[in-house]
């Protein structure tokens, strides 16, 4: 940077010298003027670099994760660039395409978690942008300028330069408007405008501006429907589905995803169908419809197996594992997570392996196998640290804190929860923030700081309600019930626990149902109703036995003995 600044100062110092040389007569002065101009031209590209947007390797890695997590699909508009009779322009276009192909080949390595790959991807993409920009200076036609700006926008978007991408797509939409005004190019201009609007919607969605994103996607959809552009219609249905899902409007998201699937099925676009089935599965899982979620994930898995796409197969096995874990079917969950882990290892995907180590840790934690759980969480943490992947680090800090909390080390647990909370706040990750508030509440409750615990649980509940996360709401209600039991406020406790129980029954979460049966037993024991106490303990014991939660099984057995009942 210091060198570049010195170059800038040098350029500023040379300019007056050049002016003096130009004003003086004589061959020596004119030669001096030429030398000055050459020096300026040599320094100028490096000077311009100061003002160009920088590329963050971490942003590129995060961008690739985001694109994998949801179906975010930009649309390309190349017009007649491959066959243009403008030879100079065609060469720039072809060179740009070569660099984009090079970047695409590197993208698999990014998903494997190779840091150097993200840097190489950025370098190749920036070269592609350079060639497309040079194409703009090769006297292209309006339609060709429109296409080049679209390509520049897509390249900028892929390296997370969102403002620059939007600038390029806005210029593309302006040029598309010019084409529409000329009858001969009207249809071509409408296609380009629909694509530009859709791509602008994606950039706005990525920036978190959902209302403006929705406007752009609807504009794109309107044009696509008027022209019967099936692929464009399907893409915009999917994009709008993502907008509504992010807002927590699950019913609207479901309808749009299903519409997109129907069109893609007619177009035989199987990879898009697989991604959309997974998106709908996520909707059902968030809503608590685990049977439907499983059905959608299995449909996605079948398609990925037909395509022999190992990378997305691994993701779908992981999704199925999560469904089984929520249900309390730990054996099936472990099997799915191990399949996903095996594929991730075969592909050399560090990110995939980290996710599955964490998932397996959750299975072992539920079983009460804390040493094995800790081993898995530490493996996941080490990989996430090596990738500098903040969200993964936050999740594993929280998981390791759970282990230490179960062992009674609340000080270390609190330290880890606060680390996780800080990262989640920096990332704006609401689900993670809610989880850590809930976890901190448990620590404070163990210490007897009930007011502090209640405050944390209420914060967690508010966030989970806001994002429509039923599992988190059930947990918060149950935790609040425990606080009220400890205070002796049994009526409020029962109200909270029954709310939690209702949600857990809807979700089919055996562990959650069992926990609330155990809580109801505690309430009835305090009230002196030992018949109902025993009834609830036995219901809890049955469910804990079904999922193999050994610590909870032993705890309930001891509680039954305390009231004089045979286990």
Automatic annotation (TrEMBL):
Domain (MalT-like TPR region): residue spans on this chain: 397-544
Q: Which Pfam families does the record match to this protein?
A: TPR_10, TPR_12, TPR_MalT
Coiled-coil intervals, chain numbering: none
Query: Which InterPro entries does UniProt cross-reference here?
Result: TPR-like_helical_dom_sf, TPR_MalT, TPR_rpt
List all membrane-crossing ranges. 6-22, 31-48
The residue spans of each TPR repeat are 234-267, 274-307, 314-347, 354-387, 434-467, 474-507
**Keywords, in A-Z order:** Membrane, Repeat, TPR repeat, Transmembrane, Transmembrane helix
> Which SUPFAM superfamilies does its entry note?
TPR-like (SSF48452)
Q: Output the superkingdom of the source species.
A: Bacteria
PANTHER family hit by this protein? AAA+ ATPASE DOMAIN-CONTAINING PROTEIN, TETRATRICOPEPTIDE REPEAT PROTEIN (AFU_ORTHOLOGUE AFUA_6G03870)
Protein name (database record): MalT-like TPR region domain-containing protein
